Amino acid sequence: MPPAPITPPSTQDGETTRVAAVAATPELTAALNDLRGKLAVYLEPAEVDRIEAAYHFGAAAHDGQFRSSGEPYISHPLAVASTLSDWRLDAQALMAALLHDVMEDTAISKQEIAERFGKPTAELVDAVSKIGRLEGQSYEEAQAENFRKMLLAMARDVRVILIKLADRLHNIQTLGTFRPDKRRRVARETLDIYAPIANRLGLNTLSRDLQELSFQNAQPMRYRVLEKALRNARGNRREGVSRITETLRRQLPLMGIEAEVMGREKHIYSIYRKMREKHLTFSQVFDIYGFRILVKDQPSCYLALGALHSIYKPVPGKFKDYIAIPKANGYQSLHTTLIGPYGTPVEIQIRTHEMHHIAESGVASHWLYKDEQTLGEFQQKTHKWLQSLLELQSTSGTSSEFLEHVKVDLFPGEVFVFTPQGKIIGLPRGATAVDFAYAVHTDIGNRCVACRINGEPKPLRTELRNGDQVEIICAAHANPNPGWLSYVKSSRARSQIRHFLKSRQSDESADLGAHLLAQSLQGFGLGLEAIDEATWERFMRGSGTQSKKDVLTDIGLGKRLPAIVARRLASEHESAAGMDELPAEKRKPLGPIIIHGGEGVVVQLAKCCRPLPGDPIIGIVRKGQGLTVHTSDCRSIGHARHESDNWIEVEWDPASSGSYETSVRIVAENRRGALARMTAAIAAADSDILNLQIDADPDVCTTLQFTLLVNSRVHLARIMRSLRHLPEVVRISRTRD
């Protein structure tokens, strides 16, 4: 939490005096001694002394600063360092924890920290320091930029996020003195970002603590109601918990299984989330208590599972094997739900002691337990996810977009599917074949056109289920479809599709802009190639753009008028050459832009009139939309005719090819087999039916609205001629939206 403004220390003597004053408080002395005791267990004395020196340096820097509770501000960094010492982090991380706010809240520089405590410590402090909010930037934009900085630093050094998570834990533990609106905002932020990151890194204990404290601050009334209900339920269910615990402790050794049995109570936030997601009342949540069984090795996990199923009956469909297929964060356990002695479901987790260490400590177990064989696979998964953040960064535009992608990645659910070679791919719940294709490789995703799921052809938007085998069919010239963004679930797929479309749009916009500018320059007797680099440089300096491509892209997207850019370029060119401006009567007429029909995302055919090759057409350039082509008689553009600067002369390419949507309205008599004859006539004319709407009146006639794929106006005329010859057709016409 930001402290009150202060005047930072400026002299070495003053620093020593202030440190003595701050360090003399009994609470700080006790906390510092407690930290020294924890550090002495696993660090060398020299390292402990350096950490204490960092404490005194931070105390001097924060002298005069107080938290909203009235405590000296240094108590906060000291609490953060204490949490990190529980995870047994190294001396650099602990020094950074004690100094993590000095760059942000005092006059201490990164260079000064590097000189006193080393460059690695200074880098960690810099990574967890917030970026100053820019003028005109909203709070949400500033927060997104800070998260982006933090997550990218985390990808390079995981200690950054461990310091930040410990910082957030202490902040949310001490939220009680803040205004309710600020408490809710910090709690919401913690639930949305920090708790999911802790979970993604396998720090399950920390994640649960953050969730519980966030829920308590965000919705205090609901928390108190559930807390009271849980207290009342303990007495009623204590006998059942004791009976199950005693039964398991007695029966498992008789079956030759050495096991440690622990009963546990679900956290309040976990109960609340289950009630909300499954629309249950508190009395309907039976599995408030769960059990954890720890065994010596992996084979014993499956033996214990068999023993449990012989003691109590399992609930069908409630078994999950996270040992064979671990979660994305490295979590491993067997989960089963049994029917307990009073007919209530009981949730049980079975795992080894090593799995338990990783489940509770996650990435921090790298420092807590040095068994590289056990931690190797988990560390690889963590590293892979951290590297994926760098990939998301490279394909995301704004900080808000990057944060959106990360949030998608932090709430994945679990669906495990197989490649044809038998490799397991983990995807978010609700993922489709397109998500799978991008999970395999970006090029596979960009080129996919169809898929087979369990050997059967399926649409690309098909949702995948656990155990599906997916085969992706690619085409060399295929490209991502913007429509995929409406149903993909994974952050990787979403960011790669957006990145491709933005790149493609930029290239197409630049090509269109070059075409429009070349036409405008013809009026000044110049070709685009006649504008030299020096002229472009002068133009860009005056317009504040970075590159020639940016100018052309802006023209293609309608953000700049080509006539105005052409006039300025021509003026720069003529003044540099000592020429007079070409008289208007001698300027060359502008030729039309040729429309091929497959230009892509920048040149679009209007949905209102659905122009076809052969129709008289006109183009309009609108800001941010590129060039839209309408038929000359389109009624929807009548009101915009006065925007003469935006209208562009366009013509169809005589050799244009492709398929175009159009609509035909038919009024037909109600006769048996009429629809079959119409569809047969359309098929015979080499057209596909995309959609059919029928407005039937059994007493008179039926109106049918066909959406067809045709290749030109002539093709459409041939189809309509075939339909008009059918005896039941009363009237036929081409329709516009």
Automatic annotation (TrEMBL):
GO terms for biological process: guanosine tetraphosphate metabolic process; nucleobase-containing small molecule interconversion; response to starvation. GO terms for molecular function: GTP diphosphokinase activity; guanosine-3',5'-bis(diphosphate) 3'-diphosphatase activity. It comes from the Bacteria. It holds the Pfam family RelA_SpoT. InterPro entries: ACT-like_dom_sf, ACT_dom, Beta-grasp_dom_sf, HD/PDEase_dom, HD_domain, NT_sf, RelA/Spo_fam, RelA_SpoT. In eubacteria ppGpp (guanosine 3'-diphosphate 5'-diphosphate) is a mediator of the stringent response that coordinates a variety of cellular activities in response to changes in nutritional abundance. This is Bifunctional (P)ppGpp synthetase II and guanosine-3',5'-bis pyrophosphate 3'-pyrophosphohydrolase.
